[in-house]
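Long-time lurker. I teach an intro course on protein structure, and each term I like to show students one example going from raw sequence to a predicted 3D structure in token notation. This year I'd like something fresh instead of my usual example. Would anyone be willing to generate the tokens for the chain below so I can use it in lecture? Attribution to the forum is fine with me.
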Amino acid sequence: MPESHPIRFGANYVPSAGWFHSWLDPAPDVWRRDFEDLAGIGLDHVRVFPVWPWIQPNRALIRERGVEDLLTLIDVAAEFGLDVSVDLLQGHLSSFDFLPSWVLTWHERSLFTDRDVRDGIAAYAERLSRAVASRDNVFAITLGNEVNNLWPSNPTTPEASRSWAAELIDVVRGAAPGLLALHSLYDATWYGPEHPFHPADNVDLGDLTTVHSWVFNGVSAIDGPLGPATVTHADYLVELAASTALDPARPVWLQEIGVPLPDVPEPDAAEFVRRTLTGALENPALWGVTWWCSHDLDRSLLDYPEREYDLGLFTVEHDPKPAAKELAAIAAEARRTAGDPAAAAPRPGLLCPVDLRAEPERRAEVAPGSAFHADWVRLRQAGPVAIVAAGRAGDAHYLRTRGIDAVHTQA
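-- Reply from a regular --
Happy to contribute to a lecture. Here you go:
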């Protein structure tokens, strides 16, 4: 990645009225008001989530009205200078799963292993990818939002998980050759020893790596809302991803990050944003930051986990929250200093004792709270620290490409 690469800043778009159920009753005026909010704090893109079963209610039926609604939203985003990344399979959203009836009830067919279902998904992916590629402000297509959340209700194996994603990446590339094709997984792929989606999938498949950083995964319990483990978790995930990729220059997109209650109390929100992003922005692998999420969830809607209601940068009344103001200031400063040679200063690396590509069953050894994680957090307090994969400490070209000037072993 060139040193002058401008970091992208955006938001995962949650409509201020009706949550994702609003796809059933599209309201372009609501979209306009919401996108005005986001453009007003200097964001450059949104990640959007059409709900899969409402567009493909039958394996042989893709609703053209649903496709047109998505294109209309993309066009509205363009009115405010916002680029768009489109997720295909929703799939999993804010603790709810949305799957079409043709994979549920007595059909009981796994998304990942059933050949007919995979072919149906491929047809959906091809149609939506071809459609959104017609819009100049679309830059990326992600297979779905944290598709590994759909396991174990959709049984799979590591081999099936990888082949499923690889097939769909090829479909997206064929239908939308000018766009980034991406695979999105939540952090069990990095930390869960038995998880059937492996770290190598995350860094081999697609045109760049995506990571989702949430401190309610146990990190905040280590040292509190503003402790070093908590505020460096995003940087730690970016580093795990960068160190696992075969290509030392492969970029990493921090595709989701937010301020969850009660892990980060409201008075600490702005400081959490500042410390977390200031650290992550020092990482040369970072491609972009997309905040979860744009707008709070209206409390008239029921049955969501409590933390889901208050994750927005804006309230449902469109008032900017402290996180929004801090994100705006950080984005403006990052753009002002893009290409600053000081940001590319050499850094030390910590040798990882686990080969995450070859030994995914050992993932717990790098999870938050592990001895390796504790050592990295301790070293990180003095400045940026890379992670060096087992077996690459002697590769001078690799280390130089990643800006690593020395490799340390664990204490």
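Some talking points for your students: The chain has two domains: 8-341, 347-408. The chain has a mean pLDDT of 95.
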